[in-house]
Amino acid sequence: MYRTLAPAHPTHFMTIPASSATPPIAASSWQRLLDWEPQSRSAWQRFTVAILLTLLAAWLRVALAPAESGGRFITLSLAAALAALYGGFSAGMLSTLLGMVLINFFLVKPYLSFAFDNPGEAFWLNLWHLLTQLVVVGAIWLMQQRNQHLREASELARISQQRFLDTFEHASAGISHVALDGRLLRVNETFCRMVGYTADELLSMRFQDLTHPGDIDPDEKFIKQALAGTRDSYALEKRYIHKDGHTVWAHLTVALMRRQAGLPDYFISVVQDISNVKAADEAVRTNERLMRQAQALAGFASWEADIAADRFRALSGSFQRLGLPGAELTGAELHSFTHPKDQQRLVQEWMDAVKNTGAYNSTYRARIDGTDRWFSVRAEFERDAEGRAVRAFGVTQDITERKRAEHQVRRLNTSLEQRIQERTRDLKAAYDELESYSYAVAHDLRSPLRIINGFAQALDEDNPALDDTSRNHLQRIMGASKKMGLLIDGLLQLSQIGRGEVTCQPVNLSAIATRLLEELTAESPQRSVSWSVEPDLHASADPSLVDALLQNLLHNAWKYTATTPQAHIRVFAREADGQTHFCVSDNGAGFDMSRADKLFQPFQRLHQPHEFSGLGIGLATAQRIVQRHGGVLQAEGAPGQGATFCFTLPGEASPDSLP
């Protein structure tokens, strides 16, 4: 077991074994005796012990030798001393007075009678004993008071030393004690973390071992000046080499400590890590360089203006980018460069900005070296307490090339608009012609189909003697004509979807979907299909077209759940990419996503005719309706796991929305 001693000299530290002092048991006993505090016991405890000690001493005196043999006071003096050691001055004097009573009245028979024949002798003996006990008890009391003061002083010294150690170890800055030859005598934890070494490693090193080679000479120069007496302290910024090799910037403050005789003793170094500050300064310098380069590349010129003196000064040589003759010009000189058509407007805008509290932002033309150039200028003002503009800070950019490009773009836009209008007229004419053609073709094909179907039906009815093969041929003719009629109806439906105006108004999709599903349920009572419609699905769309859209999607879902044991159809909405997507989902046959590109093509089907009936026109019609509203129709699914069709429509307009 070792204990650390901190002697008066602050630069030396040593450890000594505790066993080299007084043997532990004896030292402990004496220490407890010396450190005894009578005040730590209550008064009744101290007085009780004093009485018991006195009675015990009297009993021993009588038991060991007759009281008449003399030395009565000496026996009870020991009890008073022990009582004083235990209970302090009051307990010692109580034992003394009680002992005097016992000596005079209880140690010699007959008891309660005065033990002395000669009153004078008794007086002097009792007086001498009282004075002696006062001296003994008082000395013990003074010793205890002195020990208590010493303990308090020692505790204050210990607390003071602990506070110093706490301050040293837990300071936010690194602290080290350095010998005159550069050896590190003591370091705190902050300094250890700063340089990455442990305290034991640092105590075997010199400060030069940690310092960047380029910063050793300035440090040693200041140390020599301090040792020569020309300075007592110094401060500098230096670099330390961290244990892992990187550089640590620090602000170092060093003070020289001297002995009482004035001789140099050691240095106290306070080290503040400023690596972040240095990094920030370097970032600022880098940003300034980049800013200058950016201004040069973008053609920016920064400037400041003295409003009262009406003088403008370009910063960082940026006047050359503007083609101005110098860095500092008066307002009149700048005015002379402005194009005559812009002079009055520019002056008025500048005066308005100076008087108001806003920024200045304008464009103007200037004639420099005989050439008209366009500039964009923006400025902000520094104002006094009364709001008057004192200074202005601004940026000017040469936008001549941009203005030329804008002029060229306007010319191109004008010609492009004309060409677009012409192409739009041509496209509209072609589209109208195609729509009329498809409608006419579909309409004109109905008459031949009716004739074919009618004659086939007449042959079937008027010739009951036809054989089975001929009758089968007639049935196939009538089936094909019926299918072609359905195809023509699909073409007409597509043609009608693409014609006419789209009139948007608030539409309740939940109500339409519920009505359509109820109709499907009534038409197929043998089907067991569960369905759900999310309430309050609203959009702004053409009601008739939306009705047709939902009818196609719901018929599609109803058809492809025909072979599903527990069929379910759901109509709901979800948010994606900031838009509301209205969805129709089922758990039916589904489809292969690799063939999804054929879903919305007219007359294209992903299932065989014997599996599910249909013409392949419903989804194409649904997509045409969604596109006419400016929306998107998407599908997702998997074979045997159902399909989900989602579309977007304009949201329902609120009463206070802007047009």
From TrEMBL:
PROSITE patterns in alphabetical order: HIS_KIN, PAC, PAS
Native source species: Hydrogenophaga aromaticivorans
Full protein name: histidine kinase
Any GO BP: osmosensory signaling via phosphorelay pathway
Keywords, alphabetical: ATP-binding, Coiled coil, Kinase, Membrane, Nucleotide-binding, Phosphoprotein, Transferase, Transmembrane, Transmembrane helix, Two-component regulatory system
Annotated coiled-coil segments of the chain: 402-433
Class in the EC hierarchy, top level: transferase
GO cellular component labels: plasma membrane
Transmembrane segments: 43-64, 76-103, 123-143
Membrane topology: Multi-pass membrane protein
